Amino acid sequence: MMHMTFYWGRQVTLLLDSWKTKTWTEYALTLCACFVVSVFYQYMEDRRLRFRLLSSSSAAASPPPSSVATPLLYPKSAASPWSPARFAGAVLFGLNSAIGYLLMLAIMSFNGGVFIAVIVGLAIGYLLFRSTDQDIVVDNPCACA
Q1: 68, burial (CB in 10 Å: exposed 0-12, middle 13-18, buried 19+)
Q2: How many other C-beta atoms are found inside a 10 Å radius of the C-beta of residue 115?
Q3: How far apart are CA 14 and CA 100, in angstroms?
Q4: What rounded mean pLDDT belongs to the chain?
Q5: Helices assigned H by DSSP within the chain
Q6: Among 10, 76, 100, 131, whose Cα sits 20 to 30 Å from the Cα of 114?
């Protein structure tokens, strides 16, 4: 039966029926995997935002005719929606979204150790990769961003 409240223990089923921990070693390796994937999530989010910044700064867009009068009608960039840079950005966004949702589902196992491993991994990843992002605008509404 699935837990509906937080519990502490080494027996956890994570994401798949085949990913069950029974021993403390399996549980510790599972927590390490959650931590590493959380740090990797922050790394990928940093790469995606930097790629977006790089591709938007390299695209030469003409200034809007009146940026105050028609902010919603002016296209964001002159680049084609099917340009390689926009396609690569979409792929990175999809990959990062998938990782974020998998982390969310891992937390929904309601195991306290998994919860702490993911949160600490996200915090450490943010500290390592994203804490110096003063010039990058974060546009991700996901709670785990």
Answers
A1: exposed
A2: 16
A3: 15
A4: 80
A5: 24-58, 84-107, 112-125
A6: 131
Q: Which residues contact 21 (CB under 8 A, 6 or more apart)?
A: 10, 11, 12, 14, 27, 30
CB 47 within 8 A of CB 99: no
Break the chain into its structural domains and give their ranges.
36-56+79-132
The average pLDDT across 45-65 equals 70
Give 110-139 pLDDT, tens digit per residue: 999 999 999 999 999 999 988 776 655 555
In the numeric block, which tokens belong to residue 134?
């003063």
CB atoms within 10 A of CB 102: 15
What is the per-residue pLDDT for 77? 53
Give the C-alpha separation, 107 to 46, whole Å.
Answer: 22
Distance CA 44, CA 118 (A): 15
Torsion of CA 21, 23, 25, 31, to 10 degrees: 40
Q: What is the pLDDT of residues 78-88, one digit of tens each?
A: 556 677 878 88
User: CA 107 to CA 127: how far, in whole Å?
Assistant: 21
Over residues 54-75, the mean pLDDT reads 55
